[in-house]
Amino acid sequence: MTDEWRAALDWAGASLDSPVVSSQPLEGGMTSSMLALTHEDGTETVLRLMTHEPWRAHGAALTSRERDAQRALADTSVPAPASIALDADGTTTGVAGHLMSRLPGLGRESLGDSRLGAMARMLAIIHAITPYEPFRTYETWAWEAKWVVPAWTRHPKSWQRAFDLLAGPAPAHEPTFLHRDFSHRNLLWTDEAITGVVDWVETSTGPAWLDAGHAATTLAVASGPEPATRFLELYADHAPEPVDPYWLVMDAVGFLPPPGRAPLFGSPGQLARLDDWLHRLVG
């Protein structure tokens, strides 16, 4: 165990009346340090520590929202972690900290048709939930400051068409409970079944197709347009309203970095796949 997070690990142990005997970093964690913990009594938990900027500055709101989302999902069929303890202000843990249960399953990068279908059905289940208190209205990640045709594009006219579309009014939509970061990267699988839906810090209320669009863009960036397109086809069978390309374009543009900053993913292959996906959406 690392001494860097000794106070946080002690807090996690005290929260369950069972000391932490081992900790291992989990893969991913764009916003946070994610630690898999084993306690003295054999309990396995996950500790989120909001260590990465710019999310660290908003850690109290993000971890509190995740706690509230997990509580709202506790009596549903969505396999979300259970919130155990929260130190939103980082009083003990040093940064905002959220301790939650650990779910079974493994992440998957390669998704065949059956898993894409399971993704679509799970997203529809999430969208059918009506929490007792609505979550915040969604925030677009396609800020106007990002509306700059990227230097690496092979489809500059497509990006400009996307910016022109977003400059118009947003379509009317039915407010829906959103995960807001739903993607194959936030799912755990046991064989062909989803046994975990994680990372609820961005939970919001908004258009269902924005959630679907984010899942599709993430698939397109990782593996190309075929699984992304197939996912959208499968989700359409369950969607509460017809697709409006506006929301799909909003999500794809949201993957651009603000001017002067590097993309969150930087490999030439990933950028090319994002470029081709946006072109497909508006071309």
Helix content: 25-40%
**CATH T-level fold name of the largest domain:** Aminoglycoside 3'-phosphotransferase, Chain: A, domain 2
Number of domains: 2
Structural class: alpha+beta
How would you explain this protein's 3D organization?
- About 35% of the residues lie in helices and about 15% in strands.
- With about 280 residues, it is of the alpha+beta class.
- Helix 5 packs antiparallel against helix 6 (about 225-235).
- The strands form three sheets. It has a five-stranded antiparallel sheet. It has a two-stranded antiparallel ribbon with strand order 6-9. The chain has a two-stranded antiparallel sheet with strand order 7-8.
- It folds into two domains: about 5-100, Phosphorylase Kinase, domain 1 (2-Layer Sandwich), CATH 3.30.200; about 115-280, Aminoglycoside phosphotransferase (APH), C-terminal lobe (Aminoglycoside 3'-phosphotransferase, Chain: A, domain 2, Alpha-Beta Complex).
- The protein is globular and about 60 Å long.
- The chain has helices at about 5-15, 60-70, 115-125, 155-165, 210-225, 225-235, 245-255, 270-280; strands spanning about 20-25, 35-40, 45-50, 85, 95-100, 175-180, 185-190, 195, 205.
- The mean pLDDT is about 95.
- A hairpin with a 4-residue loop joins strand 2 (about 35-40) and strand 3 (about 45-50).
Features:
Phosphorylase Kinase, domain 1; 8 helices; five-stranded antiparallel sheet; 2 domains; single chain; globular; two-stranded antiparallel ribbon; Aminoglycoside 3'-phosphotransferase, Chain: A, domain 2
Describe the structure in brief.
With 283 residues, the protein is α+β, with helices and mostly antiparallel strands. The chain has helices at residues 6-15, 59-72, 113-127, 156-167, 208-223, 225-236, 245-254, 268-282; strands at residues 20-25, 33-39, 44-49, 83-87, 97-101, 176-178, 187-190, 193-197, 204-206.
